[in-house]
Each structure stands twice: as C-alpha cells, then as structure tokens.
Design goal:
- By secondary structure, this protein is α+β, with helices and mostly antiparallel strands.
- The protein has 2 domains: 222 residues, Endonuclease III, domain 1 (Orthogonal Bundle); 129 residues, Alpha-Beta Complex (Nucleoside Triphosphate Pyrophosphohydrolase), CATH 3.90.79.
- The chain contains 17 helices and 7 strands.
- A 4-stranded mixed β-sheet has the order 4-1-6-5.
- The longest helix has 16 residues.
- It is elongated.
C-alpha cells in the first residue's frame, strides 16, 4: 500500500478509538476479556445477534468455565447448551479445539495468531480477535462489519465476498494498528459496524466518528457499499413433520452423525407436504393405531444454503412401543424434550406443540 493510502487510512484510528471509549456497549465478555471468554463469545457471535447470545454465553460459562471442562464435555451436553444458536458445528469445533489445547498446549490457549489458527474452528477473524483482545497482539480481526465500514469510508469498490479482498484488507489494517490498543481498535471497528454503520437500512451517519471524511457519505451513496457478488439461491426442501405421541411420550429420532444438524434430535418426518390421508396411511404402515390427528401450523426455517418448508401434524396414537419399521425412533417424555435432547430451533413450532399438557386439550 502506497504511503498516501496509508496516511489516508491512518486518519480513521484516533476518532474511532475516541468514539469507542465513549460509546462501547457493556457486554459480559468485555468485562473480563480472558482468552477463553473471548473465544467462546466470538464463536457464539458468528451469525448470531449480540442480544440473543447473552443468555447462552452466561449459561455456557457457568456450565463449562474453562478449557478443561470444555474438553471433557459430552456431545449431548454441548448440543443442549447450544440448542437454539444454530450452526452446531461451531460447538463441536470448540470441543475439538479445547482437546487440542489440553493435548498440545498444556491446557493454555496459545497467545499468537499463527498458533490460534491451528485450532479447530478458528479462522483468521477469530484468531485475530482472540490474539488482539485477550493478548493485545497487533493483528487485525476482519469480519463483515469491518469490511462494510472500511468500504464506505473509502468508497472501496472491491467485492468483499472474495477472499483475496478480505486478505488485502487484513494486510492494510496491519499497517495502521495502534500501538498498545489493538484489541480496542478491532472491537471499535466491529462496534461501529454493529451500531452505526449498519448493514440494513440507512446508516446513522450523524453518530459516526468518520462523519467529516467518509467518502460514501460525502457522495450520498452509503447504501451502495459494500459491493458484493450475488450468492447462489438457496435450495428449498419440503417436509411433513409428525408429532407422534401416546399418553405419556413423544417420538424422536437422532439425525445422522455428519451433515446438517448432525447428531441432534428431531421429530420423524416425511418428504414433501403430505395430506392427512397420506400421513394416516404412513402411521398405519408403522404399525400404529391413530386415535386423533390435528393439522399444525406451517413453518419455514432458513439455513445458509437451503430452506425447509414444513407442514406439521400432531398424531395421538394408542401405544408408541408398537411401532415397526423405524428402528431409529426413541420415546421421550415432556421433561426430557426440554432438558435432555437437543432439538434444533428449526422445529420450534412443533416442539411447542409437542408439550403433552396442551397438545390435545381442546379435543379431549
């Protein structure tokens, strides 16, 4: 990067840090920014809003307060703690990385960017965040917020979806990392993108520390940046969810150990959006006698690359134990569906219906 470009970029530092010192949110992971606390928070915050993360973070830290506890945790415990956050490979990688730390680093989280990048589930952004915030290493932490605010202040037309652009921005920020305040600088960039230079809607330019020299604001084209190439459209899958219950229990099945929502529990389902007659025929094939059936609300869940469009039925049967032809099913009581089995938020509408004290009350 040429000297004039460095000089231009350097002018963002002082006003940004002054703004952050005055306006930074009070967040639980900022109060005591140890490497473990920063690491857990950064993994949780990927693709999840701050307010949604707070209760999960407190519960996770209370249950697994350090690397050793995380390394020793059983998968069922991890998935239950993560239930509702989505992207469950994140918590599996936390567990893998904790085991690496115990085995290869004597239980101490490494303090350099290079060593952090060797841990499962830790990429350049997370390594930069941990190294700078917990250890004050002068390395950048570039995420979508950072790419957005920098593209606007400079009217940078590069496609931020390209890895080479992200790598270039990391190198550019290395040139201007403030001495002794790397962690504050990285957090300030993230905070500005989260609170002021927001991704959706009009940015709050009147509150921005870069108000006087932001090129996109001066040109009145803030929302035209950053430049992004279009993502491939998500595929759509249609499912019919079966909330199968007898007098005391609900039928669940475990998802495969690899792939989407791996190892979690779900309700049995049929491909496609099926009619009541088709559902009853399938129940009969399983060797069950349906006593009542009720149509549940339709539901949709969006993943990164696909969408589930779901139809649901609640079916009261005489006895789940008489089921045949589906050896993957298990039968859980209400308390177990709440506390023991990790059921993805994709099924939230049907989990609510599965609570046996309310399901058939109006027709009993």
């Amino acid at each position: 990067m040429r000297k004039n470009e460095i000089d231009e970029l350097e002018k963002i530092v002082e006003p940004l840090l002054g703004w952050y010192d005055a306006h930074a949110r009070v967040l639980p992971w900022r109060e005591e920014p140890t490497a473990y606390r920063v690491w857990v928070s950064e993994i949780m915050l990927q693709q999840t809003r701050v307010e949604a993360v707070k209760p999960y973070y407190e519960r996770f830290l209370n249950t697994l307060p350090d690397v050793e506890a995380l390394a020793d945790a059983e998968e069922e415990v991890l998935l239950k703690l993560w239930e509702g956050l989505g992207y469950y490979n994140r918590v599996r990688n936390l567990n893998k990385a904790a085991r690496q730390i115990m085995e290869q680093y004597g239980g101490q989280i490494p303090d350099t960017y290079e060593e952090l990048c060797k841990l499962a589930g830790i990429g350049s952004y997370t390594a930069g965040a941990i190294a700078s915030i917990a250890f004050n290493r002068p390395v950048p932490a570039v995420d979508g917020n950072v790419l957005r605010v920098l593209s606007r202040v400079r009217m940078d037309g590069r496609d931020i979806m390209q890895q080479r652009v992200k790598t270039a921005v990391e190198q550019e920020l290395l040139e201007i990392m403030p001495e002794g305040r790397a962690g504050a600088f990285n957090q300030a960039l993230m905070e500005l993108g989260a609170m002021v230079c927001i991704p959706n809607g009009e940015p709050k330019c009147g509150e921005c520390p870069w108000h006087d020299f932001c090129k996109a604001r001066l040109a009145g084209c803030m929302t035209e940046y950053p430049k992004k190439s279009k993502k491939k459209p998500r595929t759509i899958e249609y499912k019919t969810i079966l909330v199968l219950q007898d007098a005391n229990r609900t039928a669940l099945q475990k998802r495969p150990s690899k792939g989407l929502l791996a190892g979690m529990y779900e309700f049995p389902w049929m491909e496609g959006n099926r009619s009541e007659e088709e559902v009853l025929a399938y129940i009969k094939e399983l060797g069950l006698k349906a006593i009542r059936i009720r149509r549940l609300e339709d539901s949709k869940h969006i993943f990164t690359h696909k969408e589930w469009h779901m139809t649901g039925y609640a079916i009261r049967v005489d006895e789940l134990e008489s089921i045949t032809g589906n050896g993957r099913l298990l039968f859980a009581d209400k308390e177990e569906t709440d506390t023991q089995y990790a059921i993805p938020s994709a099924y939230a509408a049907y989990l609510k219906a599965a609570h046996m004290d309310t399901l058939f009350r109006h027709i009993n």
